[in-house]
Amino acid sequence: MDTPVYDFVKNYCESKKTRFHMPGHKGANVLLECEAMDITEIEGADVLSHAEGIIKKSQLNASALFKSGETFYSTEGSSHCIKTMLAVIIDDVKRDKREKRPYIIAARNVHRAMIDACALLDIDVEFILSEQSGNICENILDISVLDKKLSDCCDKGNMPVCVYVTSPDYLGNIADIKGLSEVCDKYDIPLAVDNAHGAYLAFLEKNLHPIQLGAAICCDSAHKTLPVLTGGAYIHISDKYTGRYRDGINKYFTVFGSTSPSYLIMQSLDLCNRYLADGYDKKLSECIRNVEKIKEFMKENGVCIVDTEPLKIVIDAAASGYTGDYAANELRRYDIECEYSDRQFVVLMITPQNDKTDFERAARWCKQSCIVREKKAPIVYENIYQKTPERIMTIREAVFSASEYVDTEASLGRICASETISCPPAVPIAVSGEIIDEQMVKLFKQYDIEKVCVTCKI
Question: Residues near 87 by Cβ (< 8 Å), separated by ≥ 6?
Fold first, then answer.
């Protein structure tokens, strides 16, 4: 597969032209030794927010690989993409001259960028809570619950602008995107998916990418699971919604993003196309087999492994009487740095770029870990969802109101100003505009949140 962005920059470097343009390093490799390949939007380099040349050609290559209606690059991660996606959806709905305030139906385990987008765009959110999970990273949206909810909305004549889910979540749970999209289609509502952790799903033997399964629009963080520089991300639109959303993406990428996108990141996205086209599916299959082997090895040695997406190893340390943070510190003694840990879980993210040594270290840890050798009584955590929080201000009103930080104990009864999330994407203990209740205070303490941002209005 051709690499138009990389080829242009490489040829420009080799031309040895005088750089009387940005960036200020002028291509001299004085700090990172990659400066020569770092350029700006010079003649022929195209413009990311309105791509018509080499970037457009590269994005078409990505679209073909992901089998989307159209694919767009971001050099500012999924955070940039989430804001853009929601703005595009709202913009599309406004064409129908909607009179009521726009709102979204969403599973509550959202990245903070989604809450930030709602504040900036003045969108309301109606969260659907899971009745199953006791962990802050999980909120599985049930198909039948969504169907009933949308039916009620239809009867009231006030439909949401979209349904929004995060899948996979931080613990590797994959939502039933196909089932959710079919329900959304039934009510002619777009399904938007934060697929930040799942770019690779398009290249499994059975394609599980949200666009393939019926989502209207989704974002992928390429850098999370593909060999792309940090900040590289995609927005994908389905065939059905391409005509409606294409222009809006170009418009809002500029509103929410920098006018100086990184050409280093763009080159990595461009080169990734060739990497994906050149036998990536086989490399992925081999990697998944290795992950399955180490998971099985851990299970045989007494480690509680949670069933998850193929490229995550999620260890339930609490099942052995330890916290996930304790297990993460153990792993560091074996030169293993985890992706995430909390009071219950440790999350390891794997890609084909992990080698034999990495798996050998994991095996050595497993053989000697206290989680295996010195098991204790399991730690059982209560379900964190007991009731829907009370909201008395819109997200926008709360975020942009006068606010102050108070001790956790003093936050009881106050209005949350800035969302409180232990890690993104996760269930916010309190969302901007909600009244902080006793359960929230209890969870703040459990997740070591000592200060909470509340509105000055009491």
Answer: 117, 121, 248, 252, 255, 256
Predicted local confidence at residue 146, as pLDDT: 96
Quick one: how far is CA 361 from the chain centroid? 28
Identify the CA nearest to 424 among candidates 176, 133, 82: 82
Which candidate, 433, 442, 358, places its Cα nearest to that of 392?
Answer: 433
Residue closest to 162 by CA, chosen among 125, 190, 193, 126 = 190
Same-domain check for residues 184 and 63: yes
Domain that holds residue 446: 395-455
> Cβ(321)–Cβ(377) under 8 Å?
yes
Are 344 and 381 in contact by the 8 Å Cβ rule? The answer is yes
Full-prediction pTM beyond 0.85? yes
- As for how many domains the chain has, the answer is 3
Same domain, 228 and 85: yes
Tell me: pLDDT of 343 over 80. Answer: yes
Backbone angles phi, psi at 52, to 5 degrees: -135, -10
Amino acid, single-letter form, for residue 309: E
